[in-house]
Every structure is written in C-alpha cells, then in structure tokens.
C-alpha cells in the first residue's frame, strides 16, 4: 500500500538489547525500520526468538528500545491511548463475567459514563458472536471464544491501532481459520491499523496488505512483501495460484535467511 500521507507508525533504526537472567547480553533487534500507513494491515513473520513480539511490545510501550526512534501520528497526547493490544493468551480474570472482562480497562481507568461503555461492550460481544455468553465466566468458554473476548476488550476504547501478538496461535486449525475470517470482517468494517505477529505464513498472506519478514536474532527486516490479492478475501483464496506464489516467496526468503545464519 502506497500513500503520500505521513505514516501513523514510523519505526526508525530501532535496536533492542537486554540482559538475560544469567547477565548475558542479548541483542534482540537490530536496525529495524518500518513505516505503517493509517488503515493498513501489516503482519510480521520470522523464526522463533527473532524479536517479533519484542517489536510489538516496543510499539505499545511495554518495553523500551535501546536505540532508534519511534514516531506516532495518532492525534493522541499519549500514543498508547490510541492502541489496543491482543496477546497470545486472552488473560481473562476468572472471577469476572465475560462482560466485566471486556469492561476491565474502563474500570481500571476510572472512566465515567459506565452505561454507555456497557452498551458498547455488549455491542462488541454481539458482533463477535458472544451475545449469549455475557454473564458467563471464562472457564465456561472455549479457547476461541475466550480469544474473542480478548479482542473485544482491546477494541473497547475504539483504538485506531490494533496490535496483535500471535492471537490465534493456541487454537485448532478450524477455529483459527474462523477467527481469521472474523478479524478480516472487523478490519473491513473499521479499517483500523493492524500490526499482527504470527508464525503462520498462510495466515499472514490471507490477512495482510504487507508481510514483513524478519531474520533470526538479532531480528532485522530482510524483506517486505506486498500482497496484491483483492479484497474482501475468503478462505477460498488460499487455494489460488497467486496466493501460493506469495506463500512460497515468503517461505523461500525465510529458508534462505536460515541457510545464511547456519553456514
């Protein structure tokens, strides 16, 4: 996706180093630069331990970067107020109902106007096909349903940016496909900026405008693949030759990078 306007997220030569529990220096990210446009869906793929999740946490302010600059053009005084985060696990509080779990961020923030927030939470849960489960507790829901609650919670304050850290990784294949379709529907409707970390190349191609391919640690960007598949998309796209070409291009890049780091 190309645009003359300024990106909503600009990552400029970001570096990340930290100390391990054994006091060893770990170089997690090296010279990472990436610009993300407003309303763009960008996925990040790469080998385990390459810093994908670390980069997402740096964007969200959950971790500090060691070098480089991040710029945000969200209109919010604190960029984090413009972001919703969906983690690998839904991280629901077992003693709260599904509705109250979605309302947790507003309760922690001490927001006024609870009635309006309750209505928004209910609307989100209905959109995510959880309207009949608002008064249930997390243990009564399947893994896919719990992850839907996590997405609803992240969307509660209607953030322009949605950060997703392998949100479907723990789900079975059929549930994962269904969640991908639901996410596509949400994105098509709201056109939020999404940064999505995944280990699945097919998932990345199905969802994204661009797929960012990262190297082994220290993670750096080795390729950015523009996905030119028409939207709206469906699971039928996975069976097309063009889809397969994108998957092979990304896999070949990862394989080549792996060979370089092991020789």
From TrEMBL:
<dbReference type="InterPro" id="IPR027417">
    <property type="entry name" value="P-loop_NTPase"/>
</dbReference>
<dbReference type="InterPro" id="IPR050166">
    <property type="entry name" value="ABC_transporter_ATP-bind"/>
</dbReference>
<dbReference type="GO" id="GO:0005524">
    <property type="term" value="F:ATP binding"/>
</dbReference>
<keyword id="KW-0547">Nucleotide-binding</keyword>
<dbReference type="Pfam" id="PF00005">
    <property type="entry name" value="ABC_tran"/>
</dbReference>
<protein>
    <submittedName>
        <fullName>ABC transporter ATP-binding protein</fullName>
    </submittedName>
</protein>
<dbReference type="InterPro" id="IPR003593">
    <property type="entry name" value="AAA+_ATPase"/>
</dbReference>
<keyword id="KW-0067">ATP-binding</keyword>
<keyword id="KW-0813">Transport</keyword>
<feature type="domain" description="ABC transporter">
    <location>
        <begin position="9"/>
        <end position="241"/>
    </location>
</feature>
<dbReference type="InterPro" id="IPR017871">
    <property type="entry name" value="ABC_transporter-like_CS"/>
</dbReference>
<dbReference type="InterPro" id="IPR003439">
    <property type="entry name" value="ABC_transporter-like_ATP-bd"/>
</dbReference>
